[in-house]
Amino acid sequence: MNFELKIQNSWRWATLNMIAFAATALAQHNSRGALVYEVTSPYHHIRVADESGLRTLFFDNGMETRMSLKNNLEGHFEYIDFFHMPWLWNTQITNVLMIGLGGGSAQRSFQNYYPDVAFRTVEIDPTVVRVAKEYFNVHESEKHRIEVSDGRIFLRRSSAHYDVILLDAYVSDRYGSSIPQHLATKEFFEIARDHLTTNGVVAYNVIGKLNGWHADIIGAIYKTLHEVFPQVYLFPATTSQNVVLVATRSAVKTNIEGVRWRATQLVQTKQITVPGFRQRVESFQNVAPVSASRSPILTDDYAPVEGLAGGNANR
């Protein structure tokens, strides 16, 4: 069976899980704020709810995106700010690919702060694209294009190279939200690496904590990335349960003093105007998580992401 067919079969299995999951989600929406919109797609049971001035996008029982109704550049989950960290390793970013749309927090941010950067989004679910446009102020433009496709298939068929590849794609299964297996393996990271420019960077959002909940999946993603990229760094969030892993093609290892200096230069020259950029840099870690020592390297033949994650996932 070719790999693209295997991917399609995995999504069909996910669709069956969606149907089973939807009944529980329907019963719980009243506790998640005022329901604005609700629909079930082949991939997700999608809800949009407003509460206390914030709009939240839910896939089944998982919170995917949060946005302030007064200012759509505010109210997002903390980990979104770490998607700006690739500038520390590549100060000449001209194009970005993101796999996973959700409610478009990263897309809105990049369009606002880097209007000259070409940003391409790949999202497998056309319903998510429609909801993001109608309820989360996501807009396509000359600089922002959205492609409805599986992220891995898109890369395999593309000849383009990117300065940054951002990954924030999740599916729902019997454990809750989880990373699609085919977007977490050594083989996939090799494909991503081969679509990066010389100073290219990958930033990967993983739901979990470095010590405790979901630590093993964080360790496995770190270890697998390190099989392909010479350096991998960690940016754990403090106000949400997320860790963003940054993998670089550069073999030169940096430290906290180095990233602080670069962040200061970027802010002082006004190349970066994102609020709180220098503060977010303080989350930087350049040592392997403890869980990496016991976690497997994920491959197309062995990627037990569901078992490693376990439990329901929220941001």
Essential attributes:
315 residues; alpha/beta; Rossmann fold; 2 domains; seven-stranded mixed β-sheet; four-stranded antiparallel β-sheet; 9 helices; 25% strand; globular
Helix content: 25-40%
Please identify the oligomeric state. single chain
CATH class designation of the largest domain: Alpha Beta
State the order of secondary-structure elements, H for helix, E for strand.
HEEEEEHEHEHEEEHEHEEHHH
What is the β-strand count? 13
CATH architecture of the largest domain: 3-Layer(aba) Sandwich
Write the CATH homologous superfamily of the largest domain: Vaccinia Virus protein VP39
The overall number of domains is: 2
* Biggest pleated sheet: 7 strands, mixed
End-to-end separation: 35 Å
| Uncertain segments | 13-31
The class by helix and strand makeup works out as alpha/beta
- Percent in strands: 25-35%
Number of helices: 9
> What is the strand arrangement across the widest sheet?
7-6-5-8-11-13-12
Report on the architecture of this protein:
The protein has 315 residues and is of the alpha/beta class. The chain folds into two domains: 66 residues, no CATH class; 232 residues, Rossmann fold (3-Layer(aba) Sandwich), CATH 3.40.50. The chain has a seven-stranded mixed beta sheet with strand order 7-6-5-8-11-13-12, with helices on both faces. A four-stranded antiparallel beta sheet has the order 1-2-3-4, sandwiched between helices. α5 crosses α6. The protein is globular.
